[in-house]
Design brief:
Layout lengths: L1 H14 L4 H31 L5 H11 L1
Length: 67
């Protein structure tokens, strides 16, 4: 998230010619965008974890129950 703040700060500093208020606004916007990206990546990671086939230990337990 801190890197998102720095990227936003630097981008707005370059765009708005060193206006301190706009620099801070760009940093906050970069922070929010970084948080959204992290949330999206977390959702993708957890949803792909749910789609994995059952592990071998689970199938071994089922085999023991059937015997």
């Amino acid at each position: 998230m801190f890197s998102g703040y720095l990227v936003g700060y630097a981008a707005f500093r370059a765009l708005f010619s060193h206006n301190p208020v706009m620099n801070a606004a760009g940093g906050i916007l970069g922070l929010v965008c970084a948080m959204l990206v992290e949330t999206l990546l977390f959702i993708i990671r957890t949803s792909s974890h749910d789609l994995r086939p059952p592990s071998s230990s689970t199938s071994q337990i089922k085999k023991k129950k059937n015997q």
